[in-house]
Design brief:
Oligomer: single chain
Number of strands: 4
Number of helices: 3
Largest sheet: 2 strands, antiparallel
Strand content: 15-25%
Shape: elongated
Helix content: 40-55%
Distance between the termini: 111 Å
Radius of gyration: 40 Å
Structural class: alpha+beta
Length: 191
């Protein structure tokens, strides 16, 4: 055999042997088939944030709430049982008071709310609804009277649209008086 063929065969055989050893080493160190879990970058929010992550075969979903719980609740109760003393004396007084308030994260009391069933979250009592309606009506009448007596004569002299501007001021007084009456009622009757 010729010497250059001999060295060529040895070189090719060595390369094939080294490649087989490399492939065997790769197969031996290979990890079994595992499912790769995706890396999820969860947003950083307020201390009251909540997350809900659901994963399945088809992918995953993330539900994120920035201020959870968004509404904070406070419940207070007072029981009073005392005897009346004074000029006329005698008698006793028994009273139970319960109060439930809802607050925002900033600490403001929820003054609004939805009219719902009594006893449910967001429900408003019939007395509060009646008091608010009366206060809005009284405030609207007072606002209209002030606007008609004070502002309407001043804007009536505007050329061409004075009559229209006088009507606008009456409506504006009505709306402002209604809102003011409702706000004052909410502080007075604690609804």
């Amino acid at each position: 055999m010729k010497p250059y063929l001999k060295w060529t065969a040895i070189s090719v055989g060595s390369i094939v042997a080294i490649a087989h050893i490399g492939v065997l080493g790769h197969l031996v160190r290979r990890e079994p088939n595992t499912v790769q879990v995706p890396t999820i970058n969860i947003p950083r929010g307020t201390p009251y944030s909540s997350y809900k992550i659901e994963a399945g075969k088809d992918g995953y979903t993330i539900e994120y709430k920035a201020n959870d719980p968004a509404i904070l609740e406070s419940h207070k109760s007072l029981s009073l049982d005392k005897e009346k003393r004074g000029f006329l004396g005698g008698g006793s007084e028994k009273r139970d008071e319960h109060r439930s308030d809802q607050y925002t994260m900033e600490g403001f009391r929820n003054m609004g709310g939805e009219i719902g069933e009594l006893g449910k979250s967001g429900g408003v009592s019939a007395e509060c609804i009646a008091a608010d309606a009366g206060a809005r009506s009284q405030g609207a009448m007072a606002g209209s009277a002030v606007a008609t007596g004070v502002l309407a004569p001043a804007v009536m002299n505007i050329p061409y649209i004075g009559w229209l501007a006088a009507g606008w001021t009456t409506l504006l007084g009505n709306n402002i008086g209604s809102a003011a009456g409702s706000r004052v009622n909410s502080f007075i009757s604690d609804c």
